[in-house]
Amino acid sequence: MPIQPLVDAATATAALADIKPPLSPQEARVEAARCLYCFDAPCIMACPTGIDIPAFIKKIAVDNVTGAARTILEANVLGASCARVCPTQVLCEGACVMLDLEKEPIQIGRLQRHATDHVAARGIQVLHAPAVKSGKRVAVIGAGPAGLGCAAELARLGHAVTVFDRKPAGGGLNTYGIAYYKMKPEVSLDEVRMIERLGVEFRTGVEVGRDVQAADLERDYDAIFLGIGLGGANRLGIPGEDLPEVIDALDFIEWIHTRPLADVPVGRRVAVLGCGNTAIDAVTQALRLGAERATIVYRRGREDMSAYDFEYELAKSDGAHFLFHAAPVEVVGESGHVAGLRLARTESRDGRVTSVPGSEWVEPVDLVLKAVGQEKQAALLQRIFPGLAIDSRGRVEHDPQTMRTSLPKVFAGGDCTSGGREVVNAVAEGKKAARGIHRHLAGDTVSGPVQASRLGVAGPPSGSGFDRPIRVHELEAALHKG
Question: Which of 67, 170, 433, 436 is 20 to 30 A off residue 266, Cα-Cα?
Answer without folding.
Answer: 170
